[in-house]
């Protein structure tokens, strides 16, 4: 669920823009600058993944994947999610342009949290990685729903009802998201485990480049 | 001011009051979707799944407006509209947006697509807020005879309608803002306004590869379908979807590496060449000033004039 234009109080709208900008700047700093184009291309893959609908009884839900994005991208996830949301807004009107800051907080903060959660707890065995991946997926969606409800409730007591409904509507998504994340992580462990290593996009050692500025020292890989 | 005004209705009237607008909305949305589907089948652009953002050949006011002025004025105006609080001002903003759509000769189908995208979220407010808004002194609440826990608060409906009108006004404005110049030019304008160069480049790259990966996903989905996969509500479907996702990630991450290497082999050093020179003339600035003045006028109307009328209870 994306927040559309005109819903939140203007102070929250502007404040969340400021907070998102600060987090995005941090996310850029944690990504090696010459690899930012790579984050952009990876974002496109997550964007396409979030368009996939999973049937749920008579209706269907689409995946949000903040948890998976955090697990795969680490600190770059906030940047990727902000970028994806901007594209969703300008292409589909999913989430308004003025609510972009709030939407980025709602999806990006859970992604960062899940990234840390996954990297700290994933262990070595295939089963455990898949389990932790599933938990991260469920946790990411639950956090996103919680932040959404808080943002909506910031409008005053008239909005409490809507906030509760929005929270309840996410419960099936949390379950589905958890299951899909667990299976996806299990698949990746078997097929391409290096994607699950800390921060594929930023941490991978590359050959030194010809006549390019020397790469910045990589950030400590322990963090997400 | 005063006490809560309760108007008791028989149950069937209450139900009709709740269901009629919902039915109308659902019907309108379904009709709109059908219409768009039919139109896209006849047209030469049958694929609406990732709408294009280029209708840049026009010569309207919006097409000729300097892109920096256009972005600054329309985005600032959007924030002003988002800060409105009353229905009358929000409806006036919708009228301004419709005027902008007409002036920019934007595609009606794409504008409707945007409205369709926000319908679900706004409908949630329209349904839930009248029922959940707590009754304050001075409110008018419709209740069912004999049922005291359910009340239809007209103030909640009024607030939800104002939110919906604001959402619609800003959503409609996106077409004149985004489709009257090619995306690279719009992003270049954003950069010239002070946004980091990297933002524009990343949006362009994502937008480009979005289509590539979507085609990849479609090919994979077609492969699954011909092998007999049908989506159902069960764990096996979730497992298949998860493997699908995993495969999409593996393929796209590998492709990302190759794309990046290819870009650097072609001399990419952190920026793309500028798409076009931007020139700002006096009339661009005047237009931006007029647009902002409209926005500020709306806010003043909203805060000063409308408040008095609203609290005098003339509207209800």
Question: How is this structure best summarized?
Answer:
Chain A is mainly alpha-helical and 224 residues long.
How would you describe the overall organization of this protein?
- The complex is a heterodimer of chains A (224) and B (316).
- Chain A has a two-stranded antiparallel sheet with strand order 1-2.
- In chain A, strand 1 and strand 2 form a beta hairpin.
- The longest helix of chain A has 28 residues, at 126-153.
- Chain A has a single domain (10-198), classed as Arp2/3 complex 21 kDa subunit ARPC3.
- Chain A is globular.
- Chain A is mainly α and 224 residues long.
- Chain A contains nine helices and two strands, in the order H-H-E-E-H-H-H-H-H-H-H.
- Mean pLDDT of chain A is 83; it is low at 202-216 and 220-224.
- Chain B is mostly helical.
- Chain B has two domains: 1-179 and 278-316, no CATH class; 183-274, no CATH class.
- In chain B, 70% of the residues lie in helices and 5% in strands.
- Chain B contains ten helices and three strands.
- Chain B has helices at residues 11-42, 61-64, 67-82, 87-103, 108-132, 154-178, 183-192, 197-226, 235-265, 282-311, and strands spanning 5-9, 140-144, 147-153.
- Chain B has a three-stranded mixed β-sheet.
- In chain B, helix 3 (67-82) packs antiparallel against helix 6 (154-178), helix 4 runs antiparallel to helix 10 and helix 5 (108-132) packs antiparallel against helix 6 (154-178).
- Chains A and B meet through helix 1, helix 2, strand 1, helix 4 and helix 7 of A and helix 3, helix 5, helix 6, helix 8 and helix 9 of B.
